[in-house]
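Researcher: Sequence of ABC transporter permease follows. Predict its structure.
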Amino acid sequence: MNILQMTVRNVTRRRGRFIFTLMGITVGIAALVTFLALGGGLKREIQREANALGAHLIVTPKGSCAYEQVSILAGEPLPINITEDEVARVAAIDGLEAVPLITVKTGVNNNPVPITGVPVDQMKAFKEWRIAEGRYFSSQQDEGILVGGRLAQDERLAIGDTLRVRGTEMPIVGIIERTGNRDDNALFIPLPVAQRLFEAGDMVSYVLIRVDDLSRVDQYILEIQETVNLGVVSDEQLLASVLAIVGTVGTTMQLVAVVAVLAAAFGIVNTMLTATYERRREIGILQAMGARRRVIFTLFMLESGFYGLLGGITGVIAGLIAARIASPLISSNAFTVFVQNGDAAMLDFSLLVTAIGFSMIAAIVAGVYPAWRASQLSPVEAISYE
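Model: Prediction complete. Tokens:
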């Protein structure tokens, strides 16, 4: 019997102890991988939505907080308090295109869905939408609805179906070809129609800005701020702000998972110390047969590392499954909508290897003291143990 066979046999000889010790490290690694997977999926979706926004600058009400910036990317409702006059003054600045929007919520089959009021003439070219079925809006006063491709499929919506928006029955006139971003799960109506239905007067929620010269973005920001008393953020600043919030939350959750792994490591210490006392006679026999102290030490370290390897692998699998199950169950809000729309169960391969490596390192470190204790037994003391 070689040393690897002895390792497996020794670890699994007491199956109850083996299973519970393994479960400890598995749960800790599973929690770590779940948070990494959800966090990784969240960041990828945020970056994708920022790219799909199609704007270089976003004009928001003065003093808008980071949560409202997240809401812009997620298509969540926003206060409607930017006036038509302010939009016109921004649009009059040379070298930029301004697209005002209203974003609110409505219901489709009792499910909350974002509905956005858009300027008809500008939006199609701005977003580069393609109509999969039906038609685009015929005018600014067209009381029809455009539906995102994924929403139409999930809710089984078709051209000619009607949806109730603020008590008004409106027909679906077109379905947008899938874009791979939040537009797939939203409804769109002409901006004047949205202002009338939601009693917004001449006001909008925010304004998307596309500039002609990217090298002058900072100058445009200053010029807009001098022209109107509104907040202005670039797409890069918006992305950095949102990712900073997500990163802070993600780091906190990962630290909680690391603590769980370290707690499991103490379980390995206890298991290995118990094994050291129970197997004194076996250690003495090995020493009598010529096994040196480093062999005994290596044997126990391999047993501890085996817990880490097996626990890491099972933890990674359990964590990915948990992330896959958890993502559609997360309550919908401005942050978690990204996880729900994305593939939260995907994780970079290098991070999976790192998670298994961390599990093994924690287990090996936990096994150092028990292995040292076992190797320090004298042959006489070990073989005479009853």
